[in-house]
Amino acid sequence: MGFLEGKKILVTGVASNRSIAWGCAEAMHKQGAEIALTYQNEKLKSRVVEMASKCGSDIALPLDVGKDEDIEALFASLAKRWDGLDAIVHSIAFAPREQLEGDYVDAVTREGFATAHEISSYSFAALAKAGRAMMEGRNGALLTMSYLGAVRAVPHYNVMGVAKASLEANVRYLSASLGPQGTRVNAISAGPIRTLAAAGISDFRDMLKKVEERTPMRRNVTIEEVGNAAAFLCSDLSSGITGDVLYVDTGYHILGLG
Ligand code: NAD
Ligand code: 0WE
């Protein structure tokens, strides 16, 4: 029997079969969880519907986290299918493309900063707030995806790093706020993975190669590995862990002079 048997888990951020969110959904389904997926727009709908069916689910709902009405409608729809919710996986980030190029001070703008923070950090609190009622009193878990750029200045990651620092602080504040009702809140800080969000980032290949050469395990991490850690953090096996950031990066973050 899987360690997520009987759990109902909402997974956001599936855009392709390379998405970290997909690694999470598959790993959680394997452990016996019931899964619901969300898709950002109509273009992604049919793909996400099909991927939901691969994890035995017929629940695929629209969610653009830039829209308050989408967030409200999501939990209203979910409440019609499920009597409660055990976990939410937030696997969403966005900054305008120009923000992720060149020098930070040259690139940053008021609008780029606001968008990155709204879509990549505020949205996690917004999902926590809207999902709170359905999660109350059932040992719930919230999980989000971060990156090393939250705590180190990584070239070109720029305002996304500042937004990930906000996201990790969000994890701590949400965990203090929701702990009393039994909801735990954590993040995984994943190593670089070739996904749609990484496509078109110039030099991403070089970055993967550099990490592979230097990291303790001498290879990059996979979405299956991130998914398995995510399954653990959304399960009762991690019942004593909240407010924390778990690095799933083949050890890269422990290096000094890599
Ligand atoms: P991905 O492109 O597969 O997933 C990103 C998701 O964000 C997509 O599904 C997209 O639809 C969604 N999204 C963007 N704007 C949205 C909006 N307004 N409303 C709803 N959804 C929106 O890429 P990924 O690498 O799987 O990214 C998932 C998470 O993992 C992100 O938070 C990213 O920062 C984080 N992460 C990625 C890496 C990496 O190297 N790929 C490393 C560490 C952390
Ligand atoms: O969080 C991310 C990337 C998130 C992301 C990606 C895009 C590309 C398309 C956010 N916004 C956008 N906007 C777009 O228009 N990662 C952890 C992957 C990533 O991106 C980098 C990295 C790493 C790692 C960018 C520069 C340097 C390193």
Automatic annotation (TrEMBL):
Which GO terms fall under molecular function for this chain's record? Answer: enoyl-[acyl-carrier-protein] reductase (NADH) activity
Quick one: which residues bind NAD(+)? 13, 19-20, 40, 64-65, 92, 164, 193-197
Give the catalytic activity. Answer: a 2,3-saturated acyl-[ACP] + NAD(+) = a (2E)-enoyl-[ACP] + NADH + H(+)
State the UniProt keywords alphabetically: Fatty acid biosynthesis, Fatty acid metabolism, Lipid biosynthesis, Lipid metabolism, NAD, Oxidoreductase
Which protein family is it in? Belongs to the short-chain dehydrogenases/reductases (SDR) family. FabI subfamily.
InterPro entries listed in its UniProt record:
Enoyl-ACP_Rdtase_NADH, NAD(P)-bd_dom_sf, SDR_fam
Query: Any idea which positions bind substrate?
Result: 95
Q: Name one Pfam family in it.
A: adh_short_C2
Keyword field contains Thylakoid: no
Residue positions of the active site: 147 (proton acceptor), 157 (proton acceptor)
Coiled-coil residues = none
**EC no.?**
1.3.1.9
Tell me the protein's name.
Answer: Enoyl-[acyl-carrier-protein] reductase [NADH]
> Which pathway features in its UniProt record?
Lipid metabolism; fatty acid biosynthesis
Which terms under GO biological process does the entry name? fatty acid biosynthetic process
